[in-house]
Write a structure and sequence with these properties.
The structure is a homotrimer. By secondary structure, chain A is α+β, with helices and mostly antiparallel strands. In chain A, 28% of the residues lie in helices and 29% in strands. The first copy, chain A, is built from seven helices and 19 strands. An eight-stranded mixed sheet of chain A has the order 1-2-12-3-13-17-15-16, sandwiched between helices. A six-stranded antiparallel β-barrel of chain A has the order 4-5-8-7-6-9. Chains A, B, C: This is Putative aminopeptidase FrvX.
Chain lengths: 304, 304, 304
């Protein structure tokens, strides 16, 4: 889990994913010789801070978002949210401005809900703050900020090791309204004719989805994917004997929103391990669920 | 109205439109020899569960959504909505899971508004339920669940009988956030240069739009179409002497949302009969409004 | 400021921008001989009521929306909003229907918030009403309805006078959900390879952005632009010594929404003078902020 630990420590809030992009490009460069198939690596200004890896003759694309939630410094000591972070007085936030490193404390006004920070000096307007990473590992679990979606990125990188045919797309802005999947989806569909997608992301532990009971296959969230595609995925998961759970939600969303609303006929399915303490510094995931997530992706990329 | 009755009985909630697609493809195959012009039929994976019919040299495209509202079984006996169905305790819901046919009853918790079902057994997670169809016809009216939008589909199929130049597009997911019109609109614009659209859908009886007073031409809903296009349509309707009403709303939407927000310069107008008891099992439409709807579409496809 | 005064008097609510389009095409035809470079003028049905001006070899596109907020007459004497106008009893509204000119008074029901009008006769259903323009100029300020965004349009037209390389796009529907920037952005990216955008629009005076303190460079609103692009803009503004302020908001939006969500990798930044009394008949802007806005656009179009 050293790779996951490293990913969780990297600050890359939505809009400023460049540090994560740089890390991933370096990692891919160093690791790809050991991978079963060497991918074509697509990156650069045409893709902003996204990366596309193309392995062999792809039929399915895996989307993993590399951005995280966080906070932007507004006026005075006010903060505004990047995405939807949980906010509790006392959370430690880190960042950097022209005056140097920042390690401050979040304050939530109990009456108004307004957010601010406590620090030894004023922080420059527009500075981004992220949760300070406290990575905790036990025999059975990992716990950290940003498992959503560093675990989805980790899953994609581990999948890459043995992937023969498929696409891995690292996307941006997912936590804050989206903005990259529309052009990634257009490019992939037009260049490779691929229109099957899997969303490598993390979901919620709920009354119907339990920690430790296997990766969740989402039948719907705020959007509803095409039923026939979901049924094919369920059949493959069952036939392979991979532990999994079925999720049914009326809210929530993912990179799939942009696939659903884009101008290509994408089929998509969200498949991810469930976590507890969502969008807090203490996101918690069971290791067996991470295992079944990776195994299911490996099978699906072969059989879909 | 046998065709309409059949359409209303078919279950095709958003995301699972395949049964309706299959019915329509069969119907078109059987009927098209009797049509004035034989259309080119575009269907298949490239269009998911949508169908495009191209007649002659098209200048205008008619969009009719084939999906309906409904419910998804969540955990325990909970239900979540597909689209925005009205919910009242006692509504009969039907569906199917691996254990067989389902005919159950909707329950609405009076305090929390939460939805569940009453049935002799548990229903499998993720199963879709739709209103049980009780189709009622009088001399002056039709009443059933899903007149929205089986009546819009019926209007398009009747229009097809005499259509010489034009496109009919059967779309999916309209009731639940959309997801197909973006690529249909792109394809139609790029292949045929068509950018005039009519939305064949059903609207609401309100204080300004009465049952029996003619088809409604919508001047706006939550979105505002381009004024110059609407004025051309109004002039044609007036010149043809077709009974119609002008609708002005601040809310509501249709397949036009995707046309308005897509990357092609579509002009669009929603034109449809008004119904009472919207999104319930008892949607009610006056036959004279159905007549004027079809007549107006016939004239507009010739003259626009 | 005669040009600005003329622009503010023209009625062009979202959906009915044609009168503004016609004015601009005439203005461009008359003025372009005096401009440093003659642009290619793209207009017509393919662009609905939008206009694109292409100067030299463009690297950056400026978007200025030409529509305004207003009201639509509904049933009886009801009004519904076009965009988000402020509403106070007594505001004078003007328009036109088949019976002639309209100069009426807005009424706001104190209990329900519902909007209606007071006038000597009924106004035809679907008629658009806009604020009556009372243009006021002092040594230091301009005040009028619709400075948002006639000032952004004015800025673009003044920029055109000396522009050597760049694109100016006049867009529609910005105040009411958008609908033109998606296809403008696609066209510009595909034809010219341009993916750098500046949004020439007007922002709000707030606790952090003061009137008279220079044009505002927005670091974020409800959406978050790509950080690296914003940093390049800030560096150019600092190096040029142009008075400016940094804005950080959690809400609000602009034409940039469609750039962010479209299927091209646009970088974008909102840069505009701040105004007080937003979306009222009395929008107020300091002249020094207009000056620094134009100067910054001139520098950025050269250096970005």
């Amino acid at each position: 889990m050293d790779l996951l630990r490293t990913l969780c420590h990297l600050a890359a809030p939505a809009g400023n994913e460049a540090p994560m992009t740089e890390f991933l490009l370096n990692y891919i460069r160093q690791q790809q010789d050991s991978w079963q198939v060497q991918p074509r690596v697509l990156a650069g200004e045409q893709f902003q801070d996204c990366i596309i890896l193309v392995f062999g003759t792809p039929r399915t694309a895996v989307f993993a978002h590399i951005d995280s939630i966080g906070f932007t410094v507004r006026y005075g000591r006010q903060l505004v949210r990047i995405g939807g972070p949980r906010a509790e007085t006392g959370y430690r936030l880190v960042g950097q401005d022209a005056q140097g490193e920042i390690d401050c404390t979040l304050l939530v006004d109990e009456e108004t809900g307004e957010l601010s920070y406590e620090f030894s000096r004023d922080i420059e307007r527009g500075t981004e703050l992220t949760f300070r990473c406290d990575f905790r590992e036990t025999a059975d679990t990992v716990q950290s900020c940003y498992l959503d979606n560093r675990l989805g990125v980790w899953n994609a990188l581990r999948l890459a090791e043995t992937l023969e045919n498929g696409i891995i797309a690292f996307s941006c802005w997912e936590e804050h309204g989206g903005g990259s999947v529309a052009y990634l989806a257009k490019y992939i569909y037009e260049q490779y004719g691929v229109r099957q997608a899997l969303i490598s992301d993390i979901t919620w532990v709920t009354e119907g989805v339990r920690a430790g009971a296997g990766v969740a296959i989402s039948l719907r969230d705020s959007l509803i994917p095409r039923r026939s595609y979901i049924e094919r995925i369920r059949a493959i998961a069952r036939a392979a004997g991979i532990p999994h759970q079925l999720e049914v939600e009326g809210s929530g969303g993912s990179d799939a929103k942009e696939l659903q609303h884009g101008a290509q006929p994408w089929d998509w399915c969200f498949i991810g391990a469930p976590e507890d303490h969502v969008h807090s510094p203490n996101e918690l995931v069971a290791k067996v669920d991470i295992d079944s997530m990776l195994t299911l992706y490996q099978v699906l990329l072969r059989e879909l």
